[in-house]
Amino acid sequence: MIVSLFRRVASPKKAITGAAVAAATTGMLFAAAPAQAAPAAPAAAKAQSIAHKMIPDAAQYKAFSKIVEHESGWNVTATNASSGAYGLVQALPGSKMASAGSDWKTNPATQIKWGLDYMNSRYGSPVAAWNFWQSHGWY
Fold first, then answer.
1. Paired strand residues for 79
2. 139-130-29-39 Cα dihedral, nearest 10 degrees
3. Does Cell wall biogenesis/degradation count among this protein's keywords (predicted)?
4. For residues 112-134, average pLDDT
């Protein structure tokens, strides 16, 4: 029993090593997920303000905002490393947004216009797109 107790107390190195491996593995798993750089707060706020003006209905704006928050965190240059999806609404390919404007890579208004048009044409509204997103984890 004393040997068993001693082994438990004497093995914190193993526990720490195991925890470090687990943390590194978890970190690698998170890194493998679609990582997006955090947008600068002013840029995200600007994009949200633009969207609010373009989507005056509170329920539709809220649904649009939830999708964008999940997809890109309001980062206009968010890129999914796995799929290549791009922008606020994670268009795939991102170049699809060129139909809304040639400045699609950097202009939040262009991306919002394209995303709103996409949600309206495919789902009928941002609320319907958000309902689909909640059921499927994508839209």
1. 86
2. 100
3. no
4. 97
Helix axes 126-136 and 108-123, enclosed angle (nearest 10): 80
- The structure tokens listed for 23 are 């943390």
* Contact predicate 72/98, CB 8 Å: no
Task: Find where tokens 């839209």 sit.
Answer: 139
- Could you tell me the pTM of the whole model? 0.71
Give the H/E segment covering residue 67: helix 58-72
3-state helix, strand, coil in the chain (%, to 5): 65, 0, 30
- Longest CA–CA span in the chain (Å) reads 74
Say which residues have a Cβ less than 8 Å from residue 82's Cβ, sequence separation at least 6.
32, 34
Among 13-17, 63-67, 79-83, 111-115, the range scoring the smallest mean pLDDT is: 13-17
d(CA 125, CA 122): 8
Same domain, 115 and 52: yes
* Domain coverage including residue 53: 41-136
Domain count, the chain: 2
